[in-house]
Amino acid sequence: MRKPMMAGNWKMNNNWAESVVLAQQLSNRYDERWEDVEVVLCPPAIDIKAVYSVLEFDRREEVVKVGGQNCHWEASGAFTGEISIPMLQAVGATHCIIGHSERRGYFGETDMDVNKKVKALLAAHMTPIVCCGESLGVRDSGDYIEFITKQVSAAFAGLEPAEVKKCVVAYEPIWAIGTGRTATPEQAEEACGAIRASIAEEFGADTADAIRILYGGSMKPANVEGLIAMEDIDGGLIGGAALKADDFVKLVEACL
Ligand code: PGA
């Protein structure tokens, strides 16, 4: 059985004090049943330490994990503006989102960059949450399954099956991100099922069975049930709804 994951991608929202408030609201709503879900909060990098401190003070840090939204593959050096994996780990992060469509689209991140970051995170024993997903243009062209599976294959190039198992994939169709337009459960399942099948082909059935595949793109309390009921959808990567404690708690509890 795959442990469901609910990960909040706070994007470039909340300064450190606002992040503390949200983390405390979530911590106050904590319930022992959350242990059956891998709950991950990914605040802006500059807020991670503050969020982790709230969770640690409340003794939640074993259950509610924190993660980065991006990282560099080098441990240190002359890379102005970048954040390294050891820096993320030093403030309590155990997970990191990689290759989000906003990083690819606005900051020119390539499949090769994603691959280097995945390898560096695994070497540091962190969990990469690897994003993939097609634009509306690619969906309308009809070649979206090929596009998505190629992104996943490129992200995992050169990895051993045992390493792939430790990763998480997030399928996030760009046309559904922040638009309020969610993929239907059937559309999301078609893509997540195809990702799992392509991982089975490349890395074996065991690996495909073990890896968690999330859906992301306007997931919210009103549509979560239908999406996570799907066989190949193991949870969500949440943007907008992760910024409201009430909504995020409902999403976590929908996984129970
Ligand atoms: P959204 O964002 O839930 O606001 O659509 C999801 C994401 O980009 O990770």
Question: How are the SSEs placed, and which strands pair?
Answer:
Layout: E1 5-9, H1 16-28, E2 38-42, H2 48-57, E3 64-68, H3 85-90, E4 93-98, H4 101-107, H5 111-123, E5 127-132, H6 136-141, H7 144-155, H8 161-164, E6 168-171, H9 185-203, H10 205-210, E7 212-216, H11 224-228, E8 235-238, H12 245-254
Parallel strand pairs: 1-2, 1-8, 2-3, 3-4, 4-5, 5-6, 6-7, 7-8
Helix pairs in contact: 1-2, 1-12, 7-9
The structure holds 2-phosphoglycolic acid.
Largest sheet: 8 strands, parallel, barrel
Structural class: alpha/beta
The total of helices stands at 12
Which strand-content bin applies to the residues? 15-25%
Report the end-to-end length measured between terminal Cα atoms: 13 Å
Anisotropy-based shape: globular
- The helix/strand order is EHEHEHEHHEHHHEHHEHEH
Radius of gyration: 17 Å
Q: Largest beta sheet: what is the strand line-up? A: 1-2-3-4-5-6-7-8
Q: If you average the pLDDT, what whole number results?
A: 97
Number of strands: 8
Bound molecule types: 2-phosphoglycolic acid
Which stretches of 5+ consecutive residues score pLDDT under 50? Answer: none
Helix content: 40-55%
